[in-house]
Amino acid sequence: MSKRCLIETSQKMNGVAAIHSEILKNDLFKNFYELWPEKFQNKTNGITPRRWLVNCNPDLGDFICEKVGPVDQWIRNMELLQSLKNSVNDHGILTALMKIKLENKRRFAQLVKKQYNIEINPEAMFDIQVRSLSA
Prior knowledge:
The chain is mainly alpha-helical. It is 54% helix and 4% strand. It contains 7 helices and 2 strands. The two termini are 27 Å apart. 4% of the residues are buried. Keywords: Carbohydrate metabolism, Glycosyltransferase, Pyridoxal phosphate, Transferase.
């Protein structure tokens, strides 16, 4: 599907963060933005730690607890996660994070195989979006 068809048929175009929305409007889809500025918007959903991180990614939540402190503290005060910035070049920490990510992707690949009989490579890049139909 071409970019033109995608934009023409879409009700809205949304970046995942304000900077992404600006890139869409000012660079990537500038001509379309000039035609239909009302289609371009920014709604950053952000992260809900209690729902997404703690419940849906428990291994990552446990890892953060090891580095930052008890979950009941950092889920209420996300500023505590700022201390992880000091680890951005720590090879051991980055390796542990990649291991968590790969294990999550392996579980996802197993689920896809079980439910749809489709084999996917857990080492491939996944771009997945989920939207609740009840909202």
